[in-house]
Amino acid sequence: MIYTKPLARLIEEFQKLPGIGPKSAQRLAFHILKRSEAEVQGFSAALIDAKERIGTCSQCFNLSCEDPCELCANPSRDHMLMCVVPEPRDLFALERTGEYKGIYHVLEGLISPIEGVGPQDLRITELVNRLTAPTTIQEVILALPPSVEGDTTSLYLSKVIKPTGVRLTRIAFGLPVGGDIEYADALTLTRAMSGRIAI
Amino acid sequence: MWLEYIHLRQFRNYSDLQLVCDPHKNLFIGENAAGKTNILESIYYLSHGRSQRTRLDRELIGWEQPFATIKLQAQSHRHGGQVVLEAQLTLTPQNTLKTVFKYNGQPVRSRSDVVGKIPTVTFFLNDLQMLRGAPEDRRNALDSALVQYDPAHFKRMSAYQKVRQQKSGLLKQPPQSIDPMVFDSLNQQLSITGAVLIQARLDYLRQVHPMAAQAYARLSQCRDQLEMQYVSSIPLSDVLDMAQIQDFLYQAIQARQADEYRRGQVLVGPHRDDVQFFLDGKDASHFGSQGQQRSIVLAMKLAEIQLLKQQLQDETPVLLLDDVMAELDPSRQQMLLEHLDPGMQVFLTTTHLDNSLKLFLEGSGSVRVFEVAKGTVKETEIICKGAPDVAIASAQ
User: Fold this and answer.
1) Between 1.10.8.420, 1.20.1440.230, 2.60.120.10, 2.130.10.10, what CATH number should domain A5-53 receive?
2) Are B185 and A160 inside 8 Å of each other by CB?
3) What ipTM does the predicted assembly reach?
């Protein structure tokens, strides 16, 4: 190997990260070496600190240092409205809109038999428990993607949530805002058509 | 629509092939395994978004090469001039395959965006055996024709395929660990995506049927009435709407649930359907003679061309004929060639020139003849006396 051992190891570690190929890994490693020792110490401390302190909220399974998390513990959020998302990053996307004021439930994945992911691997029992225990929740919004996995999970959830009597909705699918109709693909347009609303 | 230029790099046995095509007739002549079909395959690949020979795109890449590219340049009134389609297949260092498709130089989101841009009608050797073959052969023939007629069918098929893959993944598990509610959710989706597929196929057959029956009557010069019927796991009638097909399909899937659990396979759905052909009410795949069966296939192909032309606002599709001429008797050869639109561009491959082929080449319209041998293609002037304006261009 042309790299000295510690450098090779650093490159290897970077390459394990998602979306990082050999070239990017090498660039990142060289960049680390150029920075001051204090900066690198700070970086490595941030990694350890994040890993040690961040856990999941026992109610909504969002990433958090607190349990319950800031969102679940916040009394000014609307505790009658719950939004179900596949991953924490989807939760953050919804939070960025600033429009949604309810609480969340993170499934930690989607049902995908090919990848061996079944309902028991997701936070579905916990979701149903939150709805069957004495609860303030009146509506569950499914914010799941319009893919086979998202659709399967939605259909599955509708079967387990309907008996609880809680109102169940799924977010709308259609054209991206600011997009052109002529550039939309046929499948998106079909779904947008069937999901049309009265104005 | 006609192809003016083909450029293949590291595609199958061609390391770098550039071909200037004739707007009318292009004949590829060579021994078996010389690479004639590979040229048609490259056109098929960009027209259909997949190969007719393999499901594994990586097989298209030349032996021990890291990538392959196909570039087709065509002229089309419908698109107001030049259309350029490209496919780049690259093996990553992790040995996964990356495919990029381009339309007029711009990368497109998915391969479905190039499907149907260069419409083709294909007539390959195994099409002739379609009637005697497995249901899969007839289904594939129907879906390939349908994709050219309505490119949105490509997405319909892949939407259904994705659900089916998930369901077979589920059925691979031991029956006691299959969650019945997950199973039912997938069945619901299978009936939604499957119903769309079935309806598209029924619509297509309804349109192609009168044209094929007419073509068959012309070809056979007899009064045998050609009928065709879509065979499905659900009861079919003319008056079904989408919701009914969906309901029937869902019921049919549920009825076979125990079998599916036991065999671990997806047993019900449009991936199991079939098309049957009848001559005067008799099943042609059992009772038809070989000649009648070939005439039916020929009639279907002629109908396909006619319907596609209508759909393309009178633009003709490109016709790909792979080795079929040698398999047809002289009278059917002649009928095929006579019924071809004179303005239509044809690519044909053959191992030898016989008389009817010579007659066809000498007929109206310009010709280019290419000699194919072991990954090289040379334009030649062979035996085409009398052919007008045989252009000589170096096309290594």
Assistant:
1) 1.10.8.420
2) no
3) 0.77
